[in-house]
């Protein structure tokens, strides 16, 4: 008959210590969701906000009146049509909140600008920061 060998207490403890060491080495990198570079954070914040605006528009058929409508749990009664004019909204189509908080620009510290594009009529967001990014384009054009 063969002898079945199990793990000793020393082997179990050494395995536990090694797994804790590996987790401790990688946990600081995992814990930060946004990059530390302000320009990279701005790109992420703009992308998330633009995505939330599109989802809101596709759900309700109108744009929010301001960015705080993306964070409320109660549906707003009025939205903006494609050209920024007030329009009634069916509250049954609202599936929010679409964002947890109104985003701020990491460069200027102010809330993002929400405006109607005069060429396309779409509601858009941009950074209120003055200055030029590392790619040579002004922050307001990102």
Summarize the structure.
This protein has 142 residues and is of the alpha+beta class. The chain has helices spanning 9-31, 38-60; strands at residues 78-80, 86-88, 113-116, 123-126.
User: Nearest-angstrom radius of gyration?
Assistant: 24 Å
The overall strand count is 4
Which regions are unreliable across 5 or more consecutive residues at pLDDT < 50?
Answer: none
> What is the approximate shape?
elongated
Q: What is the percentage of strand-forming residues?
A: 5-15%
Order of strands across the main sheet: 1-2
Mean pLDDT: 86
Enter the CATH topology name.
Glycoprotein, Type 4 Pilin
* Total number of domains: 1
Helix-strand string: HHEEEE
Q: SS-based structural class?
A: alpha+beta
Helical run tally = 2
The termini sit apart by 73 Å
| Assigned CATH architecture | 2-Layer Sandwich
Instruction: State the helicity in percent bands.
Output: 25-40%
Descriptive account of the structure:
- The chain is an alpha+beta fold and 142 residues long.
- It has a single domain (38-141), classed as Glycoprotein, Type 4 Pilin, CATH 3.30.700.
- It is built from two helices and four strands.
- The strands form two sheets. Strands 1-2 form a two-stranded antiparallel ribbon. It has a two-stranded antiparallel ribbon with strand order 3-4.
- A hairpin with a 5-residue loop joins β1 and β2.
- The protein is elongated.
- The model has no long low-confidence stretch (mean pLDDT 86).
């Amino acid at each position: 008959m063969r002898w079945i060998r199990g793990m000793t207490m020393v082997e179990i403890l050494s395995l536990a210590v090694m797994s804790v060491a590996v987790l401790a080495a990688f946990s600081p990198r995992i814990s930060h969701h946004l990059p530390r570079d302000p320009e990279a954070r701005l790109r992420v914040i703009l992308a998330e906000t633009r995505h939330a605006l599109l989802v809101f528009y596709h759900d309700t058929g109108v744009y929010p009146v301001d960015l705080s409508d993306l964070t409320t749990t109660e549906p707003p009664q009025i939205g903006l049509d494609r050209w920024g004019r007030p329009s009634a909204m069916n509250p049954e189509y609202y599936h929010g909140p679409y964002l947890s908080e109104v985003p701020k620009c990491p460069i200027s510290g102010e809330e993002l600008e929400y405006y109607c594009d005069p060429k396309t009529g779409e509601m858009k967001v941009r950074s209120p920061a003055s200055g030029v990014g590392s790619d040579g384009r002004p922050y307001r054009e990102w």
